[in-house]
Design a protein that fits this description.
The chain has about 525 residues and is α+β, with helices and mostly antiparallel strands. The chain is built from 17 helices and 10 strands. The two termini are about 40 Å apart.
């Protein structure tokens, strides 16, 4: 039996983006790639978020002029941003290295390491949330000391900017860690309890953060404009335009990132389904999501494994009973049979008992396998069905279970070619070949617990007796004229009538046919 092929992992963007590399990258390359992406994403989102908050707080939202507050804006805010970035990168990197240490060890993750790895995006985001909340407290307190009327505006601005920034960073962190999450989920099934917010909760949350929080900032600007009576129409227009731009940008960015996080797992399943639809069952997709989408990916892999196992069983079943019988069994598993007109071919080795006595068992088995290989190949070529291996003999049927246009002719042609091939390809052994045709009962016999497909009828007995006679005639090939008469003229022309004999077990004579 041929060896089972290894599973094919989809190689074209297996994790949804070329940035994440191939599925089979080395542990060291995986760690370097993931760490670079994490650092770039976290630095980029927080720098952009900090700059947006700074611009809004200094240039857009109205506030009374104050030299001390301007100094805080010009020095303290950039200084805190740089310090927070440095602390966040070092803290997050050390934590990520500790959690994903099993990757460099090139071993499967334990259940605890799997859970910690899948929760890593949330834990890294909590570090950012802490630093942004600390910034909110620090700058709100400074504003209370220096300019109390600006404290609420500054605190809400920093808080809103921090929320949007942290959510964007969370989505990008999930993206960067997909290959590591896939490796964590490769050897073990995903935990039954979701390790991230479900799709419904994520959709509502990202909508609230991407649209609700920026809109609250816009409403805050309107409230501040009402409180500050001296805000001009020009300044108010600039505020609305600036905040509107922030709302559209943040909402669009978060919606895009959220949509990509949902689409990537679904697309991987869709691509894999297309591969299975083309007939390739040895396919597996990386599972890199901790939500219901990860369960969908894992479910697809289980389905593909089940299909492979079903196909393997079907293939093994077909090797034992023949593919035609497999199709018949899948169509109906009931006992019984039907009358069919078939051609019957029986082949039996000459002197197999003597061979077994003088040769080692391994050589006898090798000889039998070569014999059976030639017989099966030629029977299949003519559309027949090998019904039984009986020791050193083979019973082949033409016309059941699959119907043939000329079952007699197919059996006769298979016999002629088989006699020639056995003489050429297996000269160390000889075999008698008997062929006939007639009506038999073909179907499933046995018990409800064990079935066997077989053919029962006088032609089977006649073919067996003809084989015994064929062992003693030149060419080792005999057929009945009944089979020749039922065959097409093209095949019948290769045969001529012989003598009449009454074979053992039959009460009427059989007219023999020999190759012309």
């Amino acid at each position: 039996m041929s060896q089972r092929r290894p599973e094919l992992v989809l190689q074209r963007k297996p994790f949804g983006s070329w940035l994440l590399g191939p599925a089979g990258q080395s542990p060291r390359l995986l760690r370097i790639r993931s760490q670079l992406l994490l650092t770039c994403f976290l630095l980029g989102t927080n720098i952009i978020g900090g700059c947006v908050v700074f611009v809004l707080a200094v240039f857009v939202l109205p506030s009374p002029p104050d030299d001390r507050l301007d100094l805080v804006r010009a020095v303290a805010f950039p200084g805190y941003l740089l310090a927070a970035l440095l602390i966040g990168v070092v803290w997050g990197t050390r934590y990520a290295l500790r959690v994903t240490g099993w990757v460099l060890e090139d071993r499967p993750a334990t259940r605890r390491e799997q859970i910690a790895t899948l929760r890593l995006p949330l834990r890294l985001t909590l570090i950012e949330i802490f630093l942004w909340l600390l910034a909110t407290v620090v700058f709100t307190v400074l504003a209370l000391v220096l300019q109390p009327e600006s404290a609420l505006r500054i605190g809400i601005t920093v808080f809103d900017g921090g929320i949007v920034t942290c959510v964007a960073a969370y989505l990008l962190t999930e993206f960067a860690l997909r290959p590591i999450a896939a490796r964590a989920l490769a050897e073990q099934a995903p935990p039954k309890r979701l390790l991230a917010a479900g799709l419904k909760a994520r959709t509502l949350f990202f909508w609230a953060v991407g649209s609700g929080v920026p809109v609250l900032g816009l409403m805050l600007a309107a409230v501040l404009a009402l409180i500050e009576k001296d805000v001009s129409a020009t300044r108010l227009s600039i505020m609305i335009l600036a905040l509107g731009t922030v709302v559209l940008t943040c909402g669009g960015l978060l919606t895009l990132l959220s949509a990509r996080s949902v689409v990537a797992p679904v697309r991987s399943v869709r691509n894999a389904l297309a591969v299975i639809g083309d007939g390739e069952l040895n396919v597996r997709i990386p599972v890199f999501d901790g939500t219901e989408l990860g369960s969908l990916q894992a479910g697809f892999n289980r389905m593909a494994a089940g299909l492979r196992e079903r196909e393997r069983i079907r293939d093994l079943f077909g090797r034992y009973v023949g593919p035609e019988v497999v199709r018949e069994a899948l169509a109906s598993d009931s006992l019984g049979g039907e009358e069919r007109f078939v051609g019957v071919l029986f082949v039996d080795l000459v002197g197999s008992t003597e061979l077994a006595a003088v040769r080692p068992p391994a050589e006898v088995v090798q000889l039998l396998n070569r014999f059976f290989e030639i017989v099966v190949d030629e029977v299949d070529r003519q559309g027949g069905f090998v019904n039984k291996f009986a020791g050193d003999a083979v019973l082949a049927v033409f016309g059941a279970p699959a119907e043939l246009a000329d079952p007699s002719g197919s059996a006769l042609q298979a016999g002629r070619v088989l006699a020639r091939r056995l003489a050429d390809e297996l000269p160390e052994a000889t075999a008698g070949i008997g062929i006939t045709a007639g009506t038999v009962v073909a179907g499933t016999v046995g018990d409800v617990r064990r079935h066997e497909y077989t053919v029962i009828g006088d032609p089977v007995n006649e073919a067996s007796r003809l084989t015994e006679l064929a062992k003693s005639v030149p060419g080792r090939l005999l057929a009945s004229m009944a089979a020749v008469d039922e065959s097409a003229p093209a095949e019948a022309g290769h045969w001529k009538a012989g003598e009449e004999v009454t074979v053992r077990g039959r009460n009427r004579p059989t007219q023999l046919a020999i190759p012309a």
